[in-house]
Amino acid sequence: MRPLGLRDLALTAGMFLVLGALAWNFEQRAAHEIVSTVRVIDGDTLDTRDGRIRLVGIDAPEMGQTCDDGMAIYDCGREARERLRQLIGGREINCATRRKDRYGRFLATCHAGDLNLAARMVETGWAVASGDYDLAELRARRAGRGIWAGTFERPDEWRATRGMATEDGGLFDPVLDRLRLWIGR
Fold this sequence. Notes:
Oligomer: single chain
Strand content: 15-25%
Largest sheet: 7 strands, mixed
């Protein structure tokens, strides 16, 4: 077996560039807008006539997950769902989708009027940042808002200790999700 040469490295880099360009192209084709009334499933999931939507960049407590605010243990998953319902307030929402996750949900950034729902859920302390909104999470944590008023288990850790599926399926899921969405059109 011979050592890798400059030509081999260039071919490998070229293949990665082509794959990256294809993934970007699929993402651009898959992106679309959903404008709809919704039913709130939980603190980061909505149901529309076009399908389920998962708010991208956040992770809210799961239904049945409990938190401790220092005075009582409460169902913070239910509370997060109620807070998202209040933010929407029965209004129509506008979502910019990028792709579908492995569960077939659209991953999207959604607004009710000018209000970014994911950002506000993190700002008010009813969801943790998951790739986005880190500064908003820091402010909520420092102010002791929502779940940050006491102690809680991060939603991904809570799911893991109960053998539930994680939100992040792995390194290649974004590419596969884009392919699924593109092929499904």
